[in-house]
Amino acid sequence: MAVLEVLNARKSFGENEVLKDISFSVDKGEVVAIIGPSGSGKSTLLRCCTILERLDAGCIRYSQDTLVETTVDGSARYADKTTMKRIRQRFGLVFQSFNLFPHLSVMDNLTEAPVHVVGVDKGAAKKKAVELLAKMGLSDKAGAYPFELSGGQQQRVAIARAMALDPEILFFDEPTSALDPELTGEILKVMRELAQEHMTMVVVTHEMSFARNVADRVIFMDKGLIVEQGDPRNVIDHPENERTKLFLQKIAEK
């Protein structure tokens, strides 16, 4: 069963068409890695899926809920506020720059949305946060503030925060790009463990080893299009499209 469906998605910024008729779906428990050069539309696609940007046309569905659909005149029509609120609880998003609230402790970062946005009981939200911090190996950091944490610790807190509402799907937008190699390993280990637990994930990444060894499917994007997709070992080790081959060759040379 598809947790996420994207159909014929289009998005432009002025004259620049960033997404050109993008369609894909993500099944429950599936890990999809999205790769491609800078400017290919990867992050914009995630931002549209998570309602940080709005499509110009196309359709996005989360299970039975339709976030946006195209009207008869070709424009995008978004769902009502009640449906939008329900959809926002279906996903979590982890940014490349952590985006923690600097004035809140780690515990408050994790409980802010459940308590004040969704209305979860404060005690229940705190219990869930304690469980997530233990899962991330950060049980001793509940009272710390973001500036007291390493980059890897901040990103693990960000992952825990994204999971605080028990989302059906997690989105990661290049979650290791701001980290050095050692800290990158910390985050990839957490993500591997989530994949082993069958967490549904869409990951924009330049980590080819993660894409090859952890993802169930790889999507290669270029210039706003899905150029190639399929089994990671086929796409990464034996790409069919010349553009995919060129991109992977440049990655290998770095």
Automatic annotation (TrEMBL):
UniProt keyword terms in alphabetical order: ATP-binding, Cell membrane, Membrane, Nucleotide-binding, Transport
InterPro entries, A to Z: AAA+_ATPase, ABC_ATPase_HisP-typ, ABC_transporter-like_ATP-bd, ABC_transporter-like_CS, MetN_ABC_transporter-like, P-loop_NTPase
Pfam families referenced in this protein's UniProt entry, alphabetically: ABC_tran
Keyword Transport: yes
Major subcellular site: membrane
SUPFAM superfamilies: P-loop containing nucleoside triphosphate hydrolases
Record keyword Calcium present: no
Compartments reported by the entry: Cell membrane
Domain ABC transporter: 4-248
PROSITE patterns reported in the protein's UniProt record: ABC_TRANSPORTER_1, ABC_TRANSPORTER_2
Topological category with respect to the lipid bilayer: Peripheral membrane protein
The protein's name in its UniProt record: Amino acid ABC transporter ATP-binding protein
Originating species: Solibaculum intestinale
Organism placement in taxonomy: Bacteria, Bacillati, Bacillota, Clostridia, Eubacteriales
